[in-house]
Amino acid sequence: MSSLQLLWFFLIGLLFAVFFLLEGFDYGVGMSLRFLAKDEQECDSLIQTIGPHWDGNEVWLITAGGAMFASFPYWYASLFSGFYILLFLILFGLIIRGVSFEFRTHVDTRKGRKLWEVTLFTGSLMAPFLFGMMFTDMVKGMPIDAQGNLSASVGDYINLFSIVGGVAVALLCLLHGLNYIRLSTLGALRQRAQKLAKLLYPVLFVGLVVYAALLLFQTDFFTARPVSSWTLLILIVLASVVATYGAYADKEWLSFIASGGTLILLVALLFNGLFPRVMVATNPAHSILIKNASSSEYTLKIMTIVACILVPIVIVYTVWSYFVFNKRVTTKKVVE
Amino acid sequence: MLTVGVSMLSLARFQFAMTTVFHFFFVPFSIGMAFITAIMETIYVVKKAPIYKQMAQFWGKIFLLSFAVGVVTGLIQEFQFGMNWSDYSRFMGDIFGAPLAIEALLAFFLESVFIGLWMFTWDRFKPAIHVIFIWLVMIGSSASALWILTANSFMQNPVAYKLANGRAEMTSFTGLLKNPQLWVEFPHVVFGAFLTAAMAVAGMSAWRLLKHKNIEFYKKSLKIGLIVGLIFSLGTIYVGDAQTRMIIKDQPMKFAATEGLYDNTGKKAPWAMIEGINAAGHKATWKVEIPDMLSIMSYHKTTGAVKGMNTINRELHQKYDKKFGKDMNYYVPPKTLFWSFRVMAGFGTLFALVTIVGLWFMRKKNNAIENKRWFLYVLGICLWLPFLANTAGWFVTELGRYPWIVYGLFTIADAVSPSVTAGELLFSNITYFLIFTMLGGTMIYFSHKTLVAGPELDDGSEKRANVDPFAKGAFNHE
């Protein structure tokens, strides 16, 4: 394994982590439409908190996918063709969600707007849930043949482990979204978000414990690299404890940073366990390894140079755009 | 077993065609609308006349609708290479991946972050600053075309690679970018995008003028549409011609098929304007010809022979039989290519003529083009034609590369995902079709509604959700 291969494995993980960090909360805001908003004005307010950002956030997913194609084509090919139906459903969710923002503003009737709120909610729930399932299946191990193609049955995709993984990721995103709402709104919405977060964090802990137990028994994470896996797992729990404390102690920034940290650490845990593989096969001989899955050294070198130049620029203007819109939304004065 | 394999390939090809064609209704329209909106806002910044701000905001709404559908259908494209074409991804990843990742980093971030800023900050930034946002969106969306076409150009004309480890590996990144095919394909696509939006703006304006609505507003919009349309119809034709002449060398079969040419011509090659094609018999049944024209089109002079498909087929067998076997069929679908080419080039020429006539009618300041109803009807029809022309263009480009997915290197049949089943593909095909029908219908419905509502609404009484949520009293500072 060359240092560039290692670097790009790390970067793919980082891109997915940033994707969950950023789009995680706007999935959460989408889900919270159902749980927080009591009327249309409140729906407006919630959507406004992510209106200028969700599209940019989604580009992190596109970048992660593109970077995976570029740096590990064998991984990309195996994962994307192997998880065909899950990815198709993810696309379905992202499509109905993505158009909701725009289409909703063009409807005159309450009923019509409600339809696009339902699609926004549904898409925002589907995407993190299905990603959670997919990544769980990916680290659990799938039937992969010598050519790197999956020949899996329904039970390989949908099982207790992957469903718990899906629920955990969706729940983490929802909580991350609630913490974001606490940060970016005022008044009733903010209070309700805090209340719901207080209610949901105990549920999350149950979910985390079950997920950790399944990781322990169904993956080789804790036998192959016990120190790092345990450390990351403990950090995940600690971050959730901090976020819970933030919810009870009315410290919204602390909660938000901690829930973002939880998502990043979860991706770190999965990628740490995956290493040095990119796809885990039920037959270990067929697992796809970092050293066999990558593009040529030349392509990796080009990609590294390009990323070094472009990523800082992207970060600068993305952060700037968050500063531009760094004000709280209130329900009262939105409707003129 | 064989039939399942074949139908699986056909379903994957159908899906690629369907998703790409649908995606490409919105891509050029969005790129072009961003460009035209940016022009309008720039005029507002320079002239400070509020009507141009209204224009930018009004046409910007239609741009945003198209952009939304373009973004979500674009997601499908990125996933599709891995999902349906995993062996292609394995073969091409070393080449394709880098441009795709750069497209995301350089183009998608730029357009998506600045479109958010542009939408919501009309009241927060000075016009001279705000206009920069839409230009950055426009640059971002055009840049995305550059990078994806870098990959497509490689598929048309592989350069700067070596075959190693069972795949194509990049040997020079700059070589990839210097692909001559890229520098005709990219301007052809982007000029075509500007043209698409220009004809759409002109057509929609004409249609409102027919209803006698907001005469001044739509006449100004129409004029901008016609000017942009004229410049870029000529530009598109010019680079299209350069592209065609490159294809004669690089992909002779594609070129011969677009001209329905089965047998070699003599020194003075006549051009078949229309002809009947017997695809199975590999011959033309009848032709309406213009003497010497094919030589002129191919070489820009009155003499010059052009090879026919039957000869090219033999040559390709000689060249590739060792690698791909004797059973390959090198004939591309002749009728589709012949007629697609005529639709594309014919409409392109029509747009140049229509925009010239329109600008002639509008040459005087107090012209009365709103009373030239027949011409407004023509423009109204032309609103839809660029979408057909774009689709036809991709038919020529992509079907004309048959049987290869990467020209001369990798066949379409080898590219498809071995692990995906026909059932999965059938399911996704049907679902995509339903989603696209819904999305396309909704998008047209809302655009129509926006158009009927007209620009006057933009004047201080915008609809709730489109108002800048961060402006005026919308927020309380903590």
* Quaternary assembly: heterodimer
Strands of chain A, count:
2
Count the DSSP helices of chain A: 14
Distance between the termini of chain A: 61 Å
Report low-confidence residues of chain A grouped into runs of 5 or more: none
Question: How do you describe this structure in short?
Answer:
The complex is a heterodimer of chains A (336) and B (478). Chain A has 336 residues and is mostly helical.
Structure description:
The complex is a heterodimer of chains A (336) and B (478). Chain A is mostly helical and 336 residues long. Chain A has one domain (3-324). Chain A has 14 helices and two strands, in the order H-H-H-H-H-H-H-H-H-H-H-H-E-E-H-H. Chain A has helices at 3-36, 40-50, 54-71, 73-82, 84-104, 110-140, 154-157, 160-184, 188-218, 221-224, 226-248, 252-274, 290-293, 297-324, and strands spanning 277-279, 288-289. In chain A, strands 1-2 form a two-stranded antiparallel sheet. The longest helix of chain A is centred in the N-terminal third of the chain and has 34 residues, at 3-36. With 478 residues, chain B is mainly alpha-helical. Chain B has 15 helices and six strands. Chain B has helices at 2-47, 50-84, 86-120, 127-156, 173-177, 182-210, 215-250, 252-258, 293-299, 309-324, 334-361, 373-382, 385-399, 412-415, 422-453, and strands at 161-164, 167-170, 271-278, 283-290, 404-406, 410-411. Chain B has a two-stranded antiparallel ribbon with strand order 1-2. In chain B, strands 3-4 form a two-stranded antiparallel ribbon. A two-stranded antiparallel ribbon of chain B has the order 5-6. In chain B, helix 1 (2-47) packs across helix 6 (182-210). The longest helix of chain B is centred in the N-terminal third of the chain and has 46 residues, at 2-47. Chain B starts with a helix and ends in a 25-residue tail after the last helix. The chains are: A mainly alpha (336), B mainly alpha (478). Chains A and B meet through helix 2, helix 3, helix 4, helix 5 and helix 14 of A and helix 2, helix 3, strand 2 and helix 15 of B.
